[in-house]
Design a protein that fits this description.
Low-confidence stretches: none
Mean pLDDT: 89
Strand content: 35-45%
Protein name: YbjN domain-containing protein
Radius of gyration: 17 Å
Helix content: 25-40%
Structural class: alpha+beta
Number of helices: 3
Order of helices and strands: HEEEEHEEH
CATH architecture: 2-Layer Sandwich
Length: 148
């Protein structure tokens, strides 16, 4: 059983909704879905990467303002960070402005896959999703909203 399979089984056994997909898993919490990927660390332990798609997209010309806002948001996050990933569309021509997706990302190193470390992963998952979602929603719906 791979590290990912063991993590998926443990999360499902604890009552979390987890669906294996291609090379990772989707952890569902309400309407949000955190993609989880796990790999053995050559130095020992397991590296777990978390990705939260926020369904926010930014055009290239808005990057200066967005980057400043994301930097401020990232300073307040303890369980992850906001990143921009370019969205590629093969049908667009080369002169079209780039579009970027705003994603929440986190990386967690687990010493092993024992009960204590899996509890730490569950707590990290819960806090990562809640913290990133809350920070973005507060910014978008607050008086000083992030404009995309």
């Amino acid at each position: 059983m791979t590290e990912l399979q063991r993590i998926v089984s443990a999360l499902q056994a604890s009552g979390m909704t987890v669906e294996p997909v291609e090379d990772g898993a989707l952890v569902r919490n309400g309407e949000s879905r955190v993609a989880l990927f796990a790999d053995a660390d050559p130095a020992g332990g397991v590296i777990v990467r978390l990705h939260l798609d926020l369904d926010l997209y930014v055009e290239e010309d808005a990057l200066p303002d967005i980057l400043m806002g994301m930097n401020l948001l990232n300073q307040g996050l303890d369980y992850g960070a906001l990143n921009l990933d370019p969205v590629t569309d093969e049908d667009e021509d080369e002169d079209s402005p780039l579009t970027f997706a705003v994603l929440g990302r986190a990386v967690l190193w687990l010493r092993d896959l024992g009960a204590g470390e899996l509890d730490r992963l569950r707590e990290h998952l819960r806090r990562f999703e809640a913290e990133v979602t809350e920070a973005v929603e507060r910014t978008l719906h607050g008086s000083k909203g992030l404009s995309a």
